[in-house]
């Protein structure tokens, strides 16, 4: 799993070496790969990137043998908003060429991965920046990255997070980015290099509540359908209102959702048909369903399920209960349910979660609870409560696509 940290692109402050040591040790102890974003706002009079601080950091990290990946800047389309001179795709490509040369000059990082350019939503000017970068320097990066935020600062109520046209914006944006990449850098992998339910650190009393979990799971499911195999989330701790744990490290709804997803959902995507309609999105087609169903092979890392099992995950945006009946070879199979609902009088704005009707909470400061499924008898209809999320594992089905 990747974890990003970087010098804040809103300031020119350097992380002290002691801080980098703590950062790397945290990632190493947690079993995470560290992706470090270098400050791209330090520029010479000719607008070219000033890499002196970056070189110092590379040499220090190499002396400590820190195994890290690298990125240059964040949302370069927004530099002019910070009172800096804007850059075009050609300059952005030159910056990445310079960084690639630096990495090769520091022997320890000569083969390190470089990701970028991490542009914003592919609107006209942003898309042109990405296009210009790929034309002039697409070969400089190992993976193309970009960011998606569903909303701006104007979101103020729960219903805004439940609009199907809002969730469908991701399908449109992914299609645009993939078209640009396939035109100018065919075969290059694409990652969603930044995600948040709302831009600019999120929205108070919404982005860190159960209401935001619909957007998060929609992002994971839709990205996988399009072949995007890595999604980087903003953020884990302390930044704004889109964080996954609070100031006391108490898990918030999106943390529990992410943990369930990692444990139950594998990388192989399966096709799903609902009432005879193909659910895989086609380019240019907007799906405005309030009931969203995805299917994957169950994660091979799961200790509870054998290879060949299938995991279905469902988003119910309806304000009423919806019933789903499995068909075909799934019809008479036993199903294990992991149903997530908000806990407490706050409803969808709750920061606590129920799993199959029981509160999800840490056992102690270091121990996660056991995720106990509810077993549904063979042939039973799946009943999704209003505005809920569910994971359903069909085990021991020995699905051919999931045996490999």
From TrEMBL:
Q: Which domain of life is it from?
A: Eukaryota
Q: Which Pfam families match?
A: Glyco_hydro_79n (PF03662)
| InterPro entries reported for this sequence | GH, Glyco_hydro_79
Q: What family name appears in the similarity comment?
A: Belongs to the glycosyl hydrolase 79 family.
Stated name of the protein: Heparanase 2
Q: Which organism is it from?
A: Coilia grayii (Gray's grenadier anchovy)
